[in-house]
C-alpha cells in the first residue's frame, strides 16, 4: 500500500527533479511555447514544498488537493491550471484515504487525466501532457489487472509515459501556445509531456519496492 508518507516522499522527489530539470524544461518550452514551463513548475513546487508540512498529517486526498490549489495560485501559463486540476481531481478520487492500493492510485491518475482533458479541451495526438499521461494510465491499468505490484505497475506506466513523451516530437501541435507555430512545432518534444513523464518516474522510483 502507498502510505501518506510515501505520497509526501513522491511529491518532495518531484520537487527536487523539477529543480534539477528547470533549465531543460524551459529550453523545451522556448522552442514551442513561452519559455517558462521549467521556471513556472519549479516555482509552483517550491510553494508546494513549503505548504506540505502544514497538511502532512491529513489524509492523502487533502494533501493532493492542497498541491493542486497551491499550483493554481502560484504557477503561471497553462501549467498551473492543468497540473492544479490534475492534483485536485486526483485527490477527489481518493477522498478520506490514508493508504492507497494500486487500484486507488490508478483511480487518482485516471481522474487527474480526465480533469486535464476537460480543462485543456485536448485529446491524444495534439502534442500535450495528455500524450504522456494517457498511455501511462492505460499501461498501469493493464499491469494492475494482471496482478502486478504497485512498483511494477508504475514502472510500466513510466515506460509508456516516456514513449508517449517521445512520440510528441513528430506531432503537429494543435492546442495551446505551440499551436500558433503550425508546422514549425514539428520536431520538438512537448514540455508538458516531459514534466508529466518526470512526475510518474518520480513515483515509480520512490515506490519501487511497493
What does this protein look like?
The protein is mainly α and 210 residues long. It has one domain: DhaL domain (Serine Threonine Protein Phosphatase 5, Tetratricopeptide repeat), CATH 1.25.40.340. Helices cover 68% and strands 2% of the residues. It contains nine helices and two strands, in the order βαααααβαααα. It has a two-stranded antiparallel sheet. Helix 1 packs antiparallel against helix 3 and helix 6 runs antiparallel to helix 7. It is globular and about 45 Å long. It starts with a strand and ends with a helix.
Provide key terms for this protein.
mainly alpha, two-stranded antiparallel sheet
Outline:
This protein is mainly α. It has helices spanning 4-20, 22-32, 37-51, 60-74, 79-93, 102-120, 130-145, 150-167, 191-206; strands spanning 2-3, 99-100. It has a single domain (2-206), classed as Serine Threonine Protein Phosphatase 5, Tetratricopeptide repeat, CATH 1.25.40.340.
Radius of gyration: 16 Å
Q: From the structure provided, what is the oligomeric state, counting identical versus distinct chains? A: single chain
Q: How many discrete domains?
A: 1
Q: Averaged pLDDT, please?
A: 93
- Number of helical regions: 9
Number of strands: 2
CATH top-level class: Mainly Alpha
Amino acid at each position: 500500500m502507498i502510505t501518506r508518507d510515501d505520497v509526501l516522499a513522491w511529491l518532495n522527489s518531484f520537487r527536487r527533479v523539477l529543480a534539477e530539470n528547470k533549465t531543460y524544461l524551459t529550453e523545451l518550452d522556448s522552442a514551442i511555447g513561452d519559455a517558462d514551463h521549467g521556471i513556472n513548475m519549479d516555482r509552483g513546487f517550491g510553494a508546494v514544498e513549503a505548504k506540505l508540512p502544514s497538511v502532512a498529517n491529513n489524509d492523502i486526498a487533502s494533501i493532493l488537493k492542497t498541491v493542486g490549489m497551491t499550483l493554481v495560485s502560484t504557477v503561471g501559463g497553462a501549467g498551473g491550471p492543468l497540473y492544479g486540476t490534475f492534483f485536485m481531481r486526483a485527490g477527489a478520487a481518493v477522498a478520506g484515504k490514508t493508504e492507497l492500493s494500486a487500484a486507488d492510485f490508478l483511480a487518482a491518475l485516471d481522474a487527474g487525466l480526465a480533469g486535464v482533458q476537460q480543462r485543456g479541451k485536448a485529446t491524444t495526438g495534439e502534442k500535450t501532457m495528455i500524450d504522456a499521461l494517457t498511455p501511462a494510465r492505460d499501461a498501469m491499468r493493464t499491469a494492475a489487472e494482471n496482478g502486478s505490484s504497485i512498483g511494477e505497475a508504475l514502472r510500466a506506466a513510466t515506460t509508456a509515459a516516456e514513449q508517449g513523451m517521445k512520440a510528441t516530437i513528430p506531432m503537429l501541435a494543435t492546442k495551446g501556445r505551440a499551436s500558433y507555430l503550425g508546422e514549425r512545432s514539428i520536431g520538438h518534444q512537448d514540455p508538458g509531456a516531459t514534466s508529466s513523464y518526470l512526475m510518474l518516474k518520480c513515483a515509480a522510483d520512490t515506490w519501487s519496492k511497493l
